[in-house]
Amino acid sequence: MRHDAVGRRAALLALGAVGLTALSACAARPSRAPRPRASPTSIIAPPRPSASTQPSGAPTAVPIHSPASAGPPRHPDPSTAPPDLDALAAGVAGRTPTAWGTDLPGIRRTLDAPYDTDGAARIALTFDACGGSRGRGYDSALIEGLMAAQVPATLFLNSRWIAANTAVAAQLVGNPLFSIGNHGTAHVPLSVTGRAAYDIPGTGSAREALDEVWGNHENLRLLIGRPPTMFRAGTAHYDDIAVGLVRALGEQPVGFSVNGDGGATYSAATVRSEVGTATAGAIVLAHMNQPSSGTAAGMLRAIGDLRARGVRFVHVDA
């Protein structure tokens, strides 16, 4: 299912040449000045036609249903044209968010199947790669430890982190031990009103929220040869309208039930302790972009502790 190495190399080289500068929760705090809206496919994909050049008969509005009752995300047919982002934004025009945070209907915070058929508890380890001036590092000790222990994990990659780590990204997306998720284009909270988390302003409109998801969706589609199916917003914060927009683009919003490393600020001992609280069905959040943190040492010890309890590690989408 993966595209050939030449196509992947071309995509990675294009990403590396971009020089994205937006800041993230893993970087210095950004300015509150309004951000210009980036084209969702401007990084490595050809520009999407503007609304004025859409073919006649293109939809003008697409209703976004409540994420609590929407069922599985709608996966666009890859043989058809890209989704009309303007139409999706128009479909929620005039709606006001009613909820905000990391635990909303429609966000997957635990596994659908917490136990294997033999009764073994299942836990998903997830690692964010955020990018930005202070978030572009690579925790090789962590990833090499996972590989040595043969522990599957789900990696959420941001566009800027990929651009700063092109060779590593190529290796990771080609390793079946890892499942790859979308961690956004600029790594910001997903909002339709600009709502902030940790003093980081979120996307300021429905269209900006769609761009934040779709820009990196297209990057990852080219890198791994198929569309990504999982999305985690920068800071893991969403409003309820943004959750519906992610699902309308065919991706499942993913949160967490265990904060494993406190944004890569915990000591190794605290990481070990926090990850050790995970129970059957837990989705553990940690980071793979801060090599000087306690994440690697604490996580690898916690993995040993959990395995001693009979835990089985799986991908979020397993």
Automatic annotation (TrEMBL):
Pfam families: Polysacc_deac_1 (PF01522). Residues 28-87 are annotated as: Disordered. One of its GO terms (molecular function) is hydrolase activity, acting on carbon-nitrogen (but not peptide) bonds. One of its GO terms (biological process) is carbohydrate metabolic process. Residues 121-318 form the NodB homology domain. Residues 1-27 form the signal peptide. The keyword Hydrolase does not apply. Residues 28-42 have a biased composition (Low complexity). InterPro entries: Glyco_hydro/deAcase_b/a-brl, NODB_dom, Polysacc_deacetylase_ArnD, TAT_signal. It comes from the Bacteria. Keywords: Signal. This is NodB homology domain-containing protein.
